[in-house]
């Protein structure tokens, strides 16, 4: 199961490199902003990662969900907090979110299996 | 082709079990509501399944489409009624819906092939 | 309250005339399809209007909701059936749909007040 | 400016009453879940309100944004934390979110003016 | 009718000033990117404005549509080109786009009436 | 890598044939409109393909992105123009678009590898 994590990260890294090598200024700056936005500010990093997770979930973007799940995991957030965040996303976004919830659970298991 | 149906249902069942075992109250109640909402009421079950199908299609959720296609099939709805529902979804949701229409047709064929 | 219905329809008719007078072929044909799609076929008109209503609601388009509410009302659909359709939309689309549900209730009242 | 807050809340309360008086079981339970989901659990109320705010903003629902802004305000969250949440929403959701950001700022001012 | 243009721009300018005065770095940079992205590059300004218009229309953001309609108008794009762009948006985005099409036509008339 | 292009087109063609063989009038006409809308009119074909690409990207439809990337490629549009279009989509649609940007880059490479 850990393979799912490795595969996701390898593809993500490879394509990000291609995109950034292309030197489109707008895209590079958006990637930059993405890094800056999730550093500690008025809100701490854990809260920001949960914000990223809930936004990704209601917008139903599996790759974005995986990315933020992994950051949540690495930041030491408990499964209870992550699931509570996902439950709010499912309530706000509706049952249309449930298939993404399934894949989120699967990815969380893969993150735990990896260590 | 029937395998597509089995695989979908096996994954769905396995992950639903994991999610429900986790005992998050909000998520459990949403799953519960989902079962209740599609039982007969002022509207009959067939009509409700078509409502679920058209909503899933305009929201472009392949897994939700598959789920409601299968319920439609099991409720004995004709392909004509299902396709008419999908045509309304394509008109309301636009050509962006067409890739989901392709996969819906493929899944319907798998449902028919299964029996 | 009936004014809300009249105002909505007057604006809608005036702007549709402008759009169609402009003679863009693609837009004219889409308007045409819109009329055809909701006539009786494999599905009856009432069912189709409920399909239009649920799709409009999960896509959170107030004007589309009003339009289909009015057609439902004119087709003699009971408030129970309409509300059941809206409840399915709220479950599938999530609590983000609730503000549109409020305006749908208000418009239905305006439709009833008008007669 | 405080009027904007009062008007919003008065309309919201009036229509919620109508909706709940109608006794549709699915809708009533969703309203109920909405109350439960934002009480303290693994996450505290402040964090949950920020989750509700960011989800409402990326989904571009003005009424939902207003509702969560008001809860954030009443929970004593600082403007800095609220704006940081809105900035993450704008990054994730894109410039399409900006018109909602304008109205969010206006509503926050109305909340402050009210007291 | 020209008032609609003035009102839109006055509100937009006033709230943008408030937002930018707040000095949130992420938001300021996104506003900056927004200006840069629509200057001439590999694509000319007219093409970029049509891209902005079609994206705003399929995402159903009235304020974004108004903003790009006005830029299109100021860049000297013909109504035929603008309407063709809107027709592609309506086809891709579906009939759910039509209410925004009505308001787009109204705003274009206001732009023409203003001069 | 060229296989990705062939596979995509083969599946697309096969399922389009099935859908059209089914003779649903609404769906057939929408397919027809789709062909007509992208022929030269007030706007040339290249511009229209970029409009299709940006709309598909902000709506986050991978298959639609692939389809328009391929048309852009066949119409002789430079990678610079295509990437500039994708950058506008990422700005307007937000970082939620980035996973689709990765797959768009991969597909463009497959298109180039094919020849």
CATH superfamily of chain A: AhpD-like
The coarse silhouette of chain A is: globular
Strand-pairing-aware structural class of chain A: mainly alpha
Q: Could you tell me the mean pLDDT of chain A?
A: 96
Q: How many domain modules of chain A?
A: 1
Number of helix segments of chain A? 6
Give the oligomer, counting copies of the same chain as homo and different chains as hetero.
Answer: homohexamer
Distance between the termini of chain A: 11 Å
CATH topology of chain A: AhpD-like
Helices and strands of chain A, in N-to-C order?
HHHHHH
| Largest interface, C-beta within 8 A | A-D, 31 and 31 residues
Report the β-strand fraction of chain A as a percent range: under 5%
GO molecular function (chains A, B, C, D, E, F): peroxiredoxin activity
InterPro entries (chains A, B, C, D, E, F): AhpD-like (IPR029032), CMD-like (IPR003779)
Protein name (chains A, B, C, D, E, F): Carboxymuconolactone decarboxylase-like domain-containing protein
Domain Carboxymuconolactone decarboxylase-like (chains A, B, C, D, E, F): 28-104
What brief labels describe this structure?
mainly alpha; 115 residues; peroxiredoxin activity (chains A, B, C, D, E, F); AhpD-like (chains A, B, C, D, E, F); 6 helices; homohexamer
Question: In words, what does this structure look like?
Answer:
6 copies of one chain form a homohexamer. Chain A has about 120 residues and is mainly alpha-helical. Chain A has one domain: AhpD-like, CATH 1.20.1290. Chain A is built from 6 helices and no strands. Chain A has helices at about 1-20, 25-35, 45-60, 60-75, 80-95, 100-115. In chain A, helix 3 (about 45-60) packs antiparallel against helix 4 (about 60-75) and helix 4 runs parallel beside helix 6. Chain A is globular and about 40 Å long. The termini of chain A are close together. The model of chain A has no long low-confidence stretch (mean pLDDT about 95). The interface of C and F includes residues 26, 30, 33 and 36 of C. Chains A, B, C, D, E, F: One of its GO terms (molecular function) is peroxiredoxin activity. Chains A, B, C, D, E, F: InterPro entries: AhpD-like (IPR029032), CMD-like (IPR003779). Chains A, B, C, D, E, F: This is Carboxymuconolactone decarboxylase-like domain-containing protein.
């Amino acid at each position: 199961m850990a393979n799912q994590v490795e595969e996701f990260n390898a593809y993500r890294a490879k394509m990000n490199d291609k995109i950034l090598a292309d030197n489109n200024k707008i895209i590079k700056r958006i990637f930059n902003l993405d890094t800056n936005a999730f550093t500690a500010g008025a809100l701490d990093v854990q809260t920001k990662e949960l914000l990223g997770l809930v936004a990704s979930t209601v917008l139903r973007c599996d790759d974005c969900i995986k990315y933020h799940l992994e950051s949540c995991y690495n930041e030491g957030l408990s499964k209870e907090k992550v699931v509570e965040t996902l439950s709010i996303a499912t309530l706000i976004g509706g049952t249309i979110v449930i298939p993404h919830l399934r894949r989120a659970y699967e990815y969380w298991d893969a993150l735990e299996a990896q260590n």
